[in-house]
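Translate sequence into structure tokens.
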Amino acid sequence: MMKLFKHILDFFNIHPDKNQRWTLSTLFIVGLLYTYVQPAITKAWVTDLPAEWIAFQSLVYSVVGLFIGMIWKGVVRRWAIRWFAVLCIIESAAGFIVGMWLAFVSYNVWVLAIACLLYGTLVSEFISKCLMTFRPKLWNEKEREIYDNNNDVVCGIYCIAGYACSLLFMPSLKTAMFVWGLTCALDNIGWLVVYHKNHDKFREIESEITK
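Result follows.
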């Protein structure tokens, strides 16, 4: 079985190391589930929300992304790296709770929109910056090329499979919200495992910052 799996990876030119096995596994599962439900969610999102909100949300994301990039140093950078695991858990828990609420209690597109805006700007941006900082600690320049290509190939596979399944078996909005909540819960597992396994390396980042 392992030899067959290795042959499949070789066929697709996927060559993960011990760290990326975790991140790629999570990426594939979450990506496959998300691409399956994404058309149904996007349809509801675009239909039920005014264009002004979509413009406002995009503006807020842009402003927050710029602001966090400007303050990504010193105490802020050190704080985010130290609390990376907590940030991941908060992001996953918030998305899961919102998804389950919308699926089983009461669907309201504004709950989804505002919740995504809040934890997307207050939490997700910091997680993204932490991952940007972690990658050079795990992979050198040549390894980063392999890392990026692995991600691109896996992304292509799950997009083809997920959108094909969506085309053939379009989920209801309730099902889509449930699956979306699951993807939120699973989204950070791979990086949490990598963070735990390489905790000493990432702690070195804090030491470098304080020098």
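Note: The radius of gyration is 19 Å.
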